[in-house]
Design a protein that fits this description.
The protein has 15 helices and 25 strands. A hairpin with a 5-residue loop joins strand 11 and strand 12. The longest helix has 67 residues. The strands form 5 sheets. Strands 1, 2, 3, 4, 5, 6, 9, 10, 11 and 12 form a 10-stranded mixed beta sheet that branches. Helix 9 runs parallel beside helix 10 and helix 11 crosses helix 12. The protein has 4 domains: 58 residues; 242 residues, Beta-Lactamase; 106 residues, no CATH class; 252 residues, Phosphatase 2c, domain 1, CATH 3.60.40.10. It is of the alpha+beta class. The chain is rod-shaped and about 180 Å long.
């Protein structure tokens, strides 16, 4: 029952496409299930396998996602080009833009803090210069025995709000300027610099120290000018830069009580919740992209810091305070180019024009890239669709070519290829039709060659024809004219192929018709003699011969072919009749290669008596000849395809043919013809058979 339920669930999941099909998908499902189980039981087992299972599950999911992305999204060329464009064009641009923004963030932040620290240092230099002036006046007053307080009016300077000037002379301190209610600073240490930001009793001050040639302990004069570094003073020192904040050391009690992350500078915690000094404000944005720039911002807790150097007044140790600036790009731009005056606006406009120009170039590049991509993808899509038409056998489909680029040339080539294929298929079908008709013609022609044995008691006959092409222009026939006589015909039609085969059929019909027509009177006489009580039953012609005269038949055949065939068509022919009682072979040769008679004693002679070819000239006569065929003599009639094939040693020739007959004379006639054909083919070698090969053999018994 559980097996049935499992199978049903599996079928249900398969129908909805939720069943994993591949081994990787099944492994991912198993890893996910194992992750869920280990997550549920990780508190109840000794070993925690959840991280391993989750690692395997996420790795399998990533690999599955890559395979799905490659199979479904990366198959199309357009998607591949998009991904290529993203990697080549978009990602580098994003990286460059990110690097530019990070650089602008760092440089702008560094510039803003540089402006603040530079202005503070300039203020210290100005305070140091003023302190030297005060010390000069104080030294003159004390040198003449005057009270130092009388120089108050001479050194009063409203440029340093809240300034306090102390003079230390011969172990005593004199207030030269400032509020007496304010605490007096202790005498400066010898290692204290001439001007610095100092921490004194938890407050920040700008202080300048001037020493005479002898210090205060030795009776010399030391003048100390101190200005509180509060928000109002800092705002006057660093104007139009935004919000400037200085963070100092965290009190020990607050440091131990706080549980929030802290920043430590010089191994001391910085109080981020109670800034020492804060001044300025961030104005409204000057333009839409004039965002508020927090130089420290969210990176504060990450350890990104700007430091302001300060000294402890009581011990002279150098400490570092934390400095932050909140500003806008417009403020930094005005501060950077404030020396140019009105030209700063022109530079801003020039930068904006360049930015717009670059943006237009990017837009144009994007549009051109999209158009080029669509051109390529549309061409490939059309080529793919065209291949689908070709795959379905529709060779009439053509691609519409709309451009003149290389892809258009490829589309044109594809159209040309499909047109050529269409023509080739039509030609192939026509060729198949012709080959089919040629095969039928070959079968019909095979019926014209004698297949039944026409042997006499004293004569064996065998013939074979091997066409150079599908059909042959050679002709041979055995003519059984009577019980004791047989005719032998061998011919070679001019030309090859269908025309020669058609003329061969005509020649076959003419020979049969003329041979039969010549015997009609004899057959009638034979029928009358039989009715009168004759006992031989052998037809005789007018000359007392058993057969028709071969010269007469060739003359009639020549006249008939001359009238019924084109002028360039003719045939060579050998025609002979064998009379068994007399062993006499009567023949006539119409321009054919002379047959060979190979005698039992090894002598060879040719049957050359006759005339010219048939069908070429009218009114030709064909003389006759005769030869005696004794037992064992072999008569070989052949076409020029037997003796005329050549190789590097020359023609095959009659001598080799006669030698083969002598070597195989006692074999059956089919074996002799096979030996002749094989010898000729070996002589040709691997070359194509040049002509039809016909061999007819008669052997007397």
């Amino acid at each position: 029952m559980n097996g049935v339920n499992t199978h049903s669930v599996q079928q249900w999941l398969r129908q909805r496409g939720l069943w994993p099909q591949t081994r990787l998908a099944r492994f991912s499902a198993a890893a996910g299930a194992a992750s869920a189980l280990t997550a549920a039981w990780q508190g109840h087992v000794k070993f925690n396998f959840f991280p391993l299972c989750m690692f395997l599950f996420l790795g399998a999911l990533l690999w599955l996602g890559y395979r799905w992305f490659k199979k479904h999204l990366m198959w199309r060329l357009s998607n591949r080009l998009i991904v290529t464009y993203v990697f080549i064009g978009v990602i580098p641009l994003v990286l460059l833009a990110t690097m530019g923004l990070v650089a602008c963030f760092l440089f702008a932040g560094q510039f803003s803090t540089f402006v603040v620290t530079t202005d503070i240092n300039n203020e210290l230099l100005r305070l140091e210069s003023a302190n030297r002036t005060v010390a000069h006046h104080a030294a003159e007053a004390l040198g003449h025995g005057l009270d130092a307080r009388v120089i108050h009016d001479a050194i009063a300077d409203d440029a340093f709000p809240g300034r306090q000037v102390m003079a230390y002379y011969k172990g005593r301190a004199e207030l030269l300027d400032g509020d007496p209610a304010q605490p007096f600073p202790a005498p400066p240490r010898d290692d204290m610099p001439d001007s610095s930001v100092v921490l004194d009793r938890g407050e920040l001050f700008l202080r300048a120290v001037h020493r005479s040639r002898q210090d205060a302990a030795a009776g010399g004069l030391v003048v100390v000018s101190s200005v509180p570094l509060d928000g109002a003073h800092l705002a006057s020192v660093v104007p139009n830069i935004g919000v400037v904040t200085v963070y100092g050391e965290m009190p020990a009690a607050a440091s131990t009580a706080s549980s929030e992350p802290e920043i430590r500078v010089d191994d001391e915690a910085i109080d981020l919740h109670h800034p020492r000094v804060i001044c300025g404000s961030v104005p409204p944005p000057a333009f839409r992209s004039d965002f508020e720039f927090d130089r420290f911002g969210s990176l504060l807790n990450a350890g990104f810091r700007s430091l302001l150097s300060a000294r402890r007044w009581e011990n002279g140790r150098e400490r570092h305070l934390l400095l932050t600036v909140q500003t806008r790009p417009s403020l930094l731009y005005n501060r950077l180019f404030h020396t140019l005056g009105e030209l700063s606006n022109a530079i801003f406009i020039l930068l904006a024009v360049i930015a717009v120009f670059f943006a237009l170039i990017e837009v144009v590049a994007l549009v051109v890239g999209i158009r080029l991509t669509r051109t390529m993808t549309s061409s490939v899509s059309k080529l793919y669709d065209a291949t689908q038409y070709i795959n379905r056998g529709d060779f009439s489909h053509r691609i519409r070519v709309k451009s003149r680029d290389q892809l258009a040339a490829l589309e044109t080539s594809f159209n040309s290829m499909t047109e050529s294929l269409q023509k080739l298929i039509a030609e192939q079908k026509e060729k198949q039709r012709i080959e089919s008709e040629l095969q039928i013609a070959k079968e019909v022609q095979d019926l014209l060659f004698p297949h039944d044995a026409a042997d006499l008691d004293g004569l064996e006959l065998h013939g074979v024809c091997r066409p150079a092409r599908t059909v042959s222009g050679d002709y041979y026939d055995f003519l059984p004219v009577s019980e004791n006589a047989v005719g032998l015909a061998v011919a070679d039609i001019s030309g090859k192929g269908i025309s020669a085969a058609l003329m061969m059929a005509t020649l076959h019909a003419f020979v049969r018709a003329h041979t039969l027509a010549e015997k009609m009177p004899s057959l009638a006489l034979a029928a009358g003699a039989t009715a009168a009580g004759g006992n031989d039953g052998v037809p005789q012609d007018g000359n007392g011969s058993c057969c028709a005269a071969p010269g007469t038949v060739l003359a009639m055949l020549n006249q008939q072919l001359y009238r019924s065939t084109p002028a360039q068509k003719y045939a060579t022919m050998f025609l002979g009749f064998y009379d068994q009682p007399s062993r006499r072979f009567l023949y006539s040769n119409a321009g054919h290669l002379p047959p060979l008679v190979v005698c039992r004693d090894g002598q060879v002679h040719r049957l050359e008596e006759g005339g010219t070819v048939v069908g070429l000239f009218p009114g030709m006569a064909y003389p006759e000849g005769s030869t005696q065929l004794n037992p064992g003599d072999i008569l070989v009639a052949y076409s020029d395809g037997i003796t005329e094939p050549e190789n590097d040693f020359g023609e095959f020739g009659e001598e080799r043919l006669a030698q083969i007959i002598l070597e195989n004379r006692d074999l059956p006639l089919p074996r002799i013809t096979d030996a002749i054909l094989n010898a000729v083919l070996d002589w040709i070698g691997g070359e194509e058979q040049p002509d039809d090969m016909t061999v007819v053999i008669a052997r007397a018994r």
